Amino acid sequence: MKFFVDTADIADIKEMADTGLLDGVTTNPSLIAKSGRDFMEVTKEICDLVDGPVSAEVVALDHETMMKEAETLRKIADNVCIKVPLTIDGLKTCKKLTSDGTKVNVTLCFSANQALLAAKAGATFVSPFVGRHDDNGLDGMELIADIRRIYDNYDFGTEILVASIRNPVHVLKSALIGADVATMPPAVIKGLFKHILTDKGIEGFVADWEKTGQTIPTS
Ligand code: E4P
Predict the structure, then answer these.
(1) What are the pLDDT digits (tens) for 77-116?
(2) Phi/psi at 76 (5° precision)
(3) Residues 144, 130: contact at Cβ < 8 Å?
(4) How far is the centre of ligand 1, averaged over its atoms, from the C-alpha of 218 (Å)?
(5) Is residue 213 part of a domain?
(6) Pocket test for ligand 1, best of 12, 28, 81 (most atoms within 8 A of CB)
(7) Which residues pair with 181 in a beta bridge?
(8) Average pLDDT, whole number, for the chain?
(9) Does 219 map to a domain?
(10) How many CB atoms lie within 10 A of CB 16?
(11) Which residues are known to be catalytic?
């Protein structure tokens, strides 16, 4: 499963990229607003930091303007992935862009039928929002399982990019279902490394090693 980080914060992206485990980045208009940075400028910086796809979202609601915005965004770098909302205009834009070879992430997906439409429109990625689904009394992971089944039934190449992830359990369940990508806030990625028994184990090994009075030569 690929790991994307869901942020427009450069320091966080650098930190995650340094682990060597980062496969891409997703942003959205709210994350850009939170960064306080110029959209074009920060997107270019992110694209220079990671080799994988960097989702940059159009803000227009009509197909014609979405296409014009996408034209500007895809000039930023080769690894820009155009993010469009799951609407009729968004999917028209998706179809057009992917036919030209541009990567497209269809966002704000909340039903398996919507995911089916995104795949038919040739989306590179579909982003079902599990956290927001759960917030509304529904089961986000059930949605991921349904989409996986539908995509496998018809051999769709669209990758399931699990979004709105709130905790490591969302990541675990996504991996068990066979989702292709998980996009996570930096805190959730960091949470994946943690286990109390790992910390306790290190503590014990360090204490016992000190008793030996030895060192491992490092040069
Ligand atoms: C993904 O592409 C979205 O930007 C993101 O995961 C939304 O998450 P939220 O529901 O926590 O805002």
Answers:
(1) 999 999 999 999 999 999 999 999 999 999 999 999 999 9
(2) -60, -45
(3) yes
(4) 43
(5) no
(6) 28
(7) 2, 161
(8) 98
(9) no
(10) 23
(11) 83
pLDDT tens digits for 22-35? 999 999 999 999 99
Task: State whether the beta carbon of 134 lies less than 6 angstroms from ligand 1.
Answer: no
Give a yes or no: residue 204 inside a domain: no
Residue owning the nearest CA to atom 1 of ligand 1: 163
Domain containing residue 167: CATH number:
3.20.20.70
Is the CB of 178 within 6 Å of ligand 1? no
- The CA distances from residue 35 to 8, 41, 55, 82, 85, in Å, are 6, 12, 15, 19, 21
* Ligand 1 site, residue 129, Cβ cutoff 6 A: yes
Strand, helix or coil for residue 156: coil
Q: Which helix (H) or strand (E) holds 4?
A: strand 2-6
In a domain, 9, yes or no: yes
The answer to whether residues 19 and 193 touch, using CB atoms and an 8 Å cutoff, is no
| Cα maximum dimension of the chain | 71
Residue 43 Cβ contacting ligand 1 at under 6 Å: no
E strand segments, 110-215? 125-128, 159-162, 181-184
Q: Contact 62/89 with Cβ under 8 angstroms?
A: yes
Instruction: Establish whether residue 28 lines the binding site of ligand 1, counting it when its CB lies within 6 angstroms of any ligand atom.
Output: yes
Query: Structural domain tally of the chain?
Result: 1
* Nearest Cα residue to atom 8 of ligand 1: 164
Domain that holds residue 37: 2-194
